[in-house]
Amino acid sequence: MASSATSFRSLSLIGVSLLRITAAAQGPEQLSLALTANGPTEMAIAWASMDAWSTATSGSVTWAPTASPGDTASASATTHTYTGGLGWTGSIFWATMTDLTPSASYTYTVESNGNRSAPFTFHAAPLPNASATARFAVLADMGTIELLGFEVAAELIKEHSANPFDISFISGDLSYATVDPPNFEIQQLWDAWGRQDEPFAATAPFMMTVGNHESSPGTITNASGTFPQEFAAFTTRWQMPQNGRGNYYFYFDYAPARVVTLNTEEDYSTGSAQWNWIEATFAATDRSTYPWLFLSLHRPIYSADADEENAHIPGGALSVALEPLLLKYKVDVVFEGHQHCYDRTASVYNGTVMGLPDASGTYTSPPATIYINQATSGAVMDSKFITPTPAWSLVRGTTYGFGRMTLATEGASRTLRYEYVSTNGTVVDRWAIVKSAA
Ligand SMILES: [Fe+2]
User: Fold this and answer.
1) How many domains are contained in the chain?
2) How far is CA 266 from the centre of its chain?
3) How far is ligand 1, taken at its centre, from the CA of residue 336, in Å?
4) Are residues 197 and 320 in the same domain?
């Protein structure tokens, strides 16, 4: 539970956030880029307008190389809306920019129902490149006003403005619109979250992993009709790469990295459809092209949080189903959420410590996966940790913030350098992986 002091702080900020909630014009808003399944020549864009579905008839995206603004191209959008929770009146648009030159800078606007957005600039994704440098922002369990998602977003945006991230991803529990999943969802909190994140989401791809707080039944409506839909807001507001099962599980590539996402809210047990897909995706990953292989999932495989302890210690269902795959396919890092704290583990398999970092936090050629829970991105933190501390749990934290991760090649080594950054920009934890580039 939040203390009375933090509750007061939260209440005092609700007024500010309500302004954001109610300040919508009819124009395009909440722009959010995403990679597609077709590689660096494409970038998907989704946005919302507060136009009712009955009047939301058309939308489009227009883009041009930033260096050649007259060389425009455009694509029309598909239109969607949904119902869920306490209801929502608005429209969602999906469009895809195509024939992009990898790594090139583009400037674009979107238009819906005669209203055009401000211009935004992004870089097309680079070609797969084992030696490339890439900078990621890592989030989980964010929200807006419960409690400090807006502060984490503000710090991320501040850094992104000065030194842009190439890509961001969040390991579930996005807006906390679903206060009591799956029963009570306030759609306007989705809008507030989309507005909060637009400065980074409209200028670099923002990739979503589903969490339990995305669970809310409803219906979706598109050009084909109206259909019942679980996770109605989550599946309607964005289109993630269509190479798995919708927005529920998929993978994306960025230069030297492949990130596989998993849905912990559906069957992941050994031999299930999702498990089979994950194994096939790991097996098909060429590690000479993608030396970094990550898994993003919401409920953690390892966390030292005492809450729901049996679900995230060795022997838990996630551990039993997934650890053999993570070891077999040499997955470097699992990014997790759900337990509202920060966790960093040893290189660990089934509870056995397989490798430890040096005093500076550097893991050299770790023999098994490292688990990072970055569920510090805004949701209320009230963690009590397992005692005595398990040998596999190296660092725990309860400071609001996000992860800053840089992948690079340094001499004969591939390096992953990670910093857990607080809302005032200080580094709470710093660690690295160094492994041979051979
Ligand atoms: Fe969660």
Assistant:
1) 2
2) 18
3) 10
4) no
